[in-house]
């Protein structure tokens, strides 16, 4: 059983139950995107998948093992996580940041090996930050900064990569840049990527698998073409919409109802 | 030491190493100057002869019983305070964190004043012990009160500021009820002074500092990942809570050890880490030794200025660490405000 899954997973913050009895399989080698309305527990679920949050009941299974019974370093060698909006200490350079990704591979003395150096170089090249390796992280643009953080998680050399809203605070061009990067990583190396995204259209375009969370449970999951229906959007986001087709990619394209300037006489809304 | 520097942080970083070396040379030079200075100004070659035991008995006496132990104590206590502050600022991720901000020094002061009040003839050894235990007790109290499924930086600093206020209120209360002799001693202790340091102090501090510094260096990788935030550190497989507990313990042990010998000297724990970061960057394998050297330098120079400028009055060194520290800190705030704009 080589995969990441949850069995009867219940998560709560204090008294508040966030996720209830969730059974979920993350398909290997694919990009899975968690969607749902604000506060539905996407980020909470993601935290639990990488063992940052202990479940009330049930568990997360990684490659056949209960993730909460594995050592933290063993988990960190299989699964990397990038939280939302991480901050680096002032003055830290890109290459110093990326090197931190080797932490779970190092022994007690922290000896730096050729393997470590190779992985760091590759991570910086794959994310296109090698040319800014000596710049400080706080001096970078939003897109560059996010690529540097992704490089750190890549240096971890894990099969799984979990990201919590990797495109927040980025303008559209940088969002595409980051998502393209993740798409390439998946396509080229078959890394399993799980991420929380807000933009549904981009989710449909980049994700192989989509999990829509609502009311503490999975409302629907599967290929975006199957999941992203007007019915799902109504139930999950409480929003009326039309589902069209993306003219470039043929993936579902969501157009919300509501108010706005109408250039069409026939518009009904 | 060479293999110790062969870590992730050290890769390709020759500039920080050169700066550390320069700091060490600067400290050694200052040490030489500080030993020469005093009411009787000694020439460097007299001092050298004196250290080798080849000078007349008066010089020998001044050097062996006064200046050398005093300067060495200042170096060690300053280094301990610098490392202590770096450890705290690292794990709390707050540039305003310091042993005297989160109540560790306050605990030491409280116990010292308690001791002076109830055992006025108790002796300096037990006064040291009392202040050391006070510092550890305060650190423990802060940790326990901040604990809620582990401790977060924000809870640590808020609880720490609370504990700090309580200890200083209790200290003031005690002082107002104390006899004059006890108040004088307590006052000197609370400002901090290297006056009267002897070789016993040096031996104690040397052993204590070496042990704590060794463990701090061994924790430098863990400190580095903590700097990226709790979630990132945990995601990288760090035993976040265990490391944080050890780091706080080390910090309290270092500042408590320094306070036991030189009293509650302020500002070094706050500013040495800042100066260190500007000089060698944020990686702790360099930052820890850098802030040790800078802390040592600040206290050594402060104490020398304090005991020479107002001769024959020996002003407590703590006055001068504050005099150097406060302006630097304001400058630092000003600088970082301009940078973020």
Describe this protein's structure.
In chain A, helix 6 links the parallel strand 7 and strand 8. With 269 residues, chain A is an alpha/beta fold. Chain B has 341 residues and is an all-alpha fold. Helix content of chain B is 76%, strand content 0%. The radius of gyration of chain B is 20 Å and the shape is globular. Chains A and B meet through helix 2, strand 6 and helix 3 of A and helix 9 and helix 10 of B.
Give the largest chain-chain interface (CB within 8 Å). A-B, 39 and 30 residues
- Spatial strand arrangement across the major sheet of chain A: 6-7-8-3-9-10
Given helix and strand content, the structural type of chain B is mainly alpha
User: What fraction, in percent, of the residue positions of chain B are helical?
Assistant: over 70%
Q: List low-pLDDT spans of chain B.
A: 1-5
Please provide the ordered H/E string of secondary-structure elements of chain B: HHHHHHHHHHHHHH
Q: How far apart, in Å, are the first and last alpha carbons of chain A? A: 49 Å
Order of helices and strands of chain A: EEEHEEHEHHHEHEHEEHHEE
How would you describe the shape of chain A?
A: globular
Q: In terms of topology, how is this protein built?
A:
The complex is a heterodimer of chains A (269) and B (341).
Chain A: E1 4-13, E2 16-26, E3 31-36, H1 42-49, E4 57-62, E5 65-66, H2 72-78, E6 79-82, H3 94-99, H4 114-126, H5 142-155, E7 160-164, H6 172-189, E8 192-196, H7 200-206, E9 209-214, E10 217-222, H8 224-227, H9 230-237, E11 241-245, E12 252-256
Parallel strand pairs in A: 3-8, 3-9, 6-7, 7-8
Antiparallel strand pairs in A: 1-2, 1-4, 4-5, 9-10, 11-12
Chain B: H1 15-36, H2 44-51, H3 57-92, H4 104-118, H5 124-146, H6 153-176, H7 180-191, H8 199-218, H9 220-226, H10 230-235, H11 240-262, H12 268-280, H13 284-308, H14 317-340
């Amino acid at each position: 059983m080589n995969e990441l899954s949850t069995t009867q997973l219940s998560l709560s913050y204090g008294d508040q139950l966030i996720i209830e009895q969730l059974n979920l399989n993350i398909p290997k080698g694919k990009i899975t995107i968690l969607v749902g309305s604000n506060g539905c527990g996407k980020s909470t679920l993601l935290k639990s998948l990488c063992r940052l949050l202990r479940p009330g009941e049930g568990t997360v299974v990684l490659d056949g093992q209960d993730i909460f019974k594995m050592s933290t370093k063993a988990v960190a060698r299989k699964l990397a996580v990038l939280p939302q909006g991480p901050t680096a200490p002032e003055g830290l350079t890109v290459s110093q940041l990326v090197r931190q990704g080797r932490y779970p591979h190092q022994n007690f003395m922290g000896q730096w090996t050729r393997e470590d150096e190779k992985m760091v170089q590759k991570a910086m090249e794959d994310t296109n930050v090698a040319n800014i390796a000596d710049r400080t992280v706080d001096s970078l643009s939003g897109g560059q900064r996010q690529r540097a953080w992704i490089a750190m998680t890549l240096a971890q050399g894990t099969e799984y990569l979990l990201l919590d809203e990797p495109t927040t605070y980025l303008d559209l061009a940088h969002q595409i840049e980051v998502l393209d990067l993740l798409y390439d990583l998946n396509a080229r190396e078959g890394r399993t990527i799980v991420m929380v995204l807000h933009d549904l259209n981009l989710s449909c375009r980049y994700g192989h698998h989509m999990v829509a969370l609502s009311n503490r449970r999975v409302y629907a999951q599967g290929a975006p073409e199957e999941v992203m229906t007007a019915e799902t959007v109504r139930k999950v986001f409480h929003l009326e919409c039309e589902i069209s087709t993306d003219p470039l990619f043929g993936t579902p394209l969501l157009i919300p109802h509501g108010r706005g300037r109408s250039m069409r006489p026939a518009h009904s809304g | 030491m060479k293999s110790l520097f062969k870590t992730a942080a050290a890769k390709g970083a020759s500039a920080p190493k050169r700066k550390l070396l320069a700091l060490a040379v600067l400290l050694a030079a200052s040490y030489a100057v500080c030993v020469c200075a005093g009411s009787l100004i000694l020439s460097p070659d007299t001092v050298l002869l004196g250290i080798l035991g080849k000078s007349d008995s008066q010089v020998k006496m001044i050097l062996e019983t006064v200046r050398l132990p005093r300067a060495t104590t200042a170096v060690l206590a300053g280094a301990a305070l610098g490392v202590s502050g770096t450890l705290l600022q690292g794990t709390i991720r707050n540039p305003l964190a310091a042993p005297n901000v989160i109540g560790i020094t306050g605990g030491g002061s409280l116990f010292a004043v308690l001791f002076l009040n109830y055992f006025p003839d108790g002796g300096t050894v037990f006064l040291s012990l009392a202040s050391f235990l006070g510092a550890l007790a305060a650190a423990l109290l802060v940790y326990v009160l901040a604990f809620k499924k582990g401790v977060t930086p924000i809870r640590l600093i808020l609880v720490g500021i609370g504990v700090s206020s309580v200890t200083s209120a209790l200290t003031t209360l005690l002082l107002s009820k104390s006899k004059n002799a006890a108040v004088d001693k307590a006052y000197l202790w609370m400002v901090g002074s290297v006056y009267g340091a002897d070789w016993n102090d040096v031996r104690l501090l040397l052993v204590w500092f070496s042990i704590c510094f060794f463990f701090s260096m061994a924790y430098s990788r863990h400190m580095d990942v903590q700097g990226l935030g709790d979630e990132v550190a945990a995601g990288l497989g760090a035993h976040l809570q265990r490391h944080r507990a050890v780091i706080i313990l080390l910090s309290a042990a270092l500042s408590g050890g320094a306070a036991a010998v030189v009293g509650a000297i302020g500002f070094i724990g706050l500013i040495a880490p800042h100066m260190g970061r500007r000089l060698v960057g944020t990686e702790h394998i360099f930052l820890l030794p850098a802030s040790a050297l800078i802390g040592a330098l600040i206290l050594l120079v402060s104490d020398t200025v304090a005991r020479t400028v107002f001769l024959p009055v020996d002003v407590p060194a703590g006055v001068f660490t504050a005099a150097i520290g406060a302006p630097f800190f304001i400058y630092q705030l000003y600088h970082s405000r301009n940078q973020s704009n």
